[in-house]
Amino acid sequence: MLFKDITYIDENFNTVExxxxxxxxxxxxxxxxxxxxxGYGEVYDGAGKVLIPGFVNNxxxxxxxLMRGYGEGLPLQRWLDEKIFPFESKWDENSIYWAGLLGMxxxxxxxxxxxxxxxxxxxxxxxxxxxxxxxxxxDNPPICFDGTPLKKQKYFPPVDEMVKKFGHSKGRFxxxxxxHAEYTSTEPLVKEVAAYAKENGVRLHxxxxxxxxxxxxxxxxxxxxxxxxxxxxxxxxxxxxLAHCVWVEDEDIATLAKYPNVSVTHCPSSNMKLGSGFAxxxxxxxxxxxxxxxxxxxxxxxxxxxxxxMHLAAMICRGNTGDADxxxxxxxxxxxxxxxxxxxxxxxxxVIKKGNKADLVVLDFNKPHLVPCYDVLTNIVFSAQxxxxxxxxxxxxxxxxxxxxxxxxxxxxxxxxxxxxxxxxEQL
Amino acid sequence: MLFKDITYIDENFNTVExxxxxxxxxxxxxxxxxxxxxGYGEVYDGAGKVLIPGFVNNxxxxxxxLMRGYGEGLPLQRWLDEKIFPFESKWDENSIYWAGLLGMxxxxxxxxxxxxxxxxxxxxxxxxxxxxxxxxxxDNPPICFDGTPLKKQKYFPPVDEMVKKFGHSKGRFxxxxxxHAEYTSTEPLVKEVAAYAKENGVRLHxxxxxxxxxxxxxxxxxxxxxxxxxxxxxxxxxxxxLAHCVWVEDEDIATLAKYPNVSVTHCPSSNMKLGSGFAxxxxxxxxxxxxxxxxxxxxxxxxxxxxxxMHLAAMICRGNTGDADxxxxxxxxxxxxxxxxxxxxxxxxxVIKKGNKADLVVLDFNKPHLVPCYDVLTNIVFSAQxxxxxxxxxxxxxxxxxxxxxxxxxxxxxxxxxxxxxxxxEQL
Lengths: 428, 428
Known about the structure:
Chain A has helices spanning about 75-90, 95-110, 120-130, 155-165, 185-200, 210-220, 225-230, 250-255, 270-275, 280-285, 305-320, 330-335, 340-345, 375-380, 410-425; strands spanning about 1-10, 15-25, 25-30, 45, 50-55, 55-60, 110-120, 135-140, 175, 175-180, 205-210, 240-245, 260-265, 290-295, 360-365, 390-395, 395-400, 405. The first copy, chain A, is an alpha/beta fold.
């Protein structure tokens, strides 16, 4: 495809107008303000449109969309114990497949081209990702309340098999290894996970310091902060995606900053909705930490919309510090794109440059809420809506265009969910 | 029009499915789960749709949309002094007309059927409101840094004329009287404004306690809080819309609660974006104050989207208190609808009930981010997007449907703004 006369965000996050951008064999093949001398198949008229790299939703539990709004109004622990955990015990391969496809549909329509997911049913996740065309780093975390060693854990054999198969994938689906959290794991398990990741050269995805209680209990029980504890267990010797990090202390930030392969994924909607608090984003950025954005599950968000996360991250940082210039549109946009790609180990995407994968999103700027436009990134971060996405492309394949999915039969998804959801609920 | 087989939010904010709702002569004429025996013109198929009362954006400066994103990143005072005030000095009747229409287009597409606006050029505002079909309470605030008495103020004669003409309007345009803020007015002016409003029986619209500096300076300079000061000047003996109220103290909340005709308009996006802080919404609701929602101008928001304000209000209340159940979807939805209507003195709208004005909005719930739906209000507050609005009706007239405006030529608006905006900028 050749995007003609389009405005785009270049690899330095500057805005370039009236550009020609060609994609071929899944990669960005041509970038110039001059028309190419050769053809590119379809010519896409970019007048009034803006081309951006696809968003990376770096912390998600996509299938939890089936619990969107379920148990609203309950405090966190009752919500988990009375609603979420009982529901999750009833998943089967059918219900989780359709719930997964619903999540893919939602993310693709919002301009997300890649996401990092922590959940169960790895093989189903791989199928959903393969069929929908999106990219995903997936992990199924061992949870070890009772001290069961890693290799005796219920899910270890199938996950280990997926790690062997997809742990070093260069394709759209990449299997990671997960650790749910400090408070759900024993110290021997954390050490086993760190060693397993190192031995297999796979990436890790962990919830850390989401709530104050979690952070304070770790200090009380282990005599050190969660970050220090994970460091002592060898976790940070791997490529690690740490979700939340709301309650990290200044010294923890210094600790994390020592490890260039450790990323933090900020989940502002979830953190605010559950009353968890405000992560110290400015401090983490200043320390040089790679900060990304995530939606968390739609059960605690209640959608999978990275536009909302960019916007909310900006609002929190400014509102909470009283500093109206606390984070810049460029920093927020990088958190939503290239920082996530880096955290996923996908160094061939996240910015628009020649040779990178054609993971691209077109925004329609002919909307009242985007007029006038003094600065494109400012309008994207503060004014744009997910519905301004008119095209989502992954590896050069158009997955979504003008409200229509190319890979997902959305009405079938709705029908199947209407069929399977009552079957789960009637068991509760 | 007859909405057939539609889900709607009733006057008690409960959800009713499979209803028939008929509108005739601008009012809601029929509500039942039974089909009416008589005809209503067009039948609108409501399957998969939700009918809600239109939103009331109760604090806005609509024309400031022309400064959307202008001066991004500057701290508040420099932003005002270097960007906003110089720009505003260059307004003329043409530029403000088209900027106003842009604001109407944006609000109508987001499901707003009425708004309260504080700005200049009252007669142009009346024209824009009349032509677009929306409802508006408008005021032009006297600003008196220099002690000029009210009736000698530059804008007094034309505004007084508008008050005489539209101050008691039962129609779509209602002229109010405004006071910019405590810190821009002398005490004699505040007293004159209070007396003028009382004498003419018109409503008042005032910025109050937006920033900590404003609140603290008032205490220092006048020996009392802003609320106490306004009370002492007789302001609260009128119907008053107080925008912001971020820094009200507990005693101020008790003061405001004594006056049933005083409403507070919460503007979460603007308050967070400018680093002003978090208004104590829970405390105000508990005191029985009529709390509404507003976007403020798009220059400090940066759009005019009440969905974002409902969502952000929920997020702030929960994130800031650590209480995951701090405000309910029903409370938030009321803030966005009937509470605003009450503040505007429009007691014939804001809820769907027979005899009320047909100020209605249809949402398309056939969207991935709205599936499944355990509770309609929860999905509206936490998951819905402004783009889910597929129809906006005011007084029974359809103003917007499936992305098309009935009263506004949006491409002409874009063209005219492209023409007039550079003329303003080149003078700066």
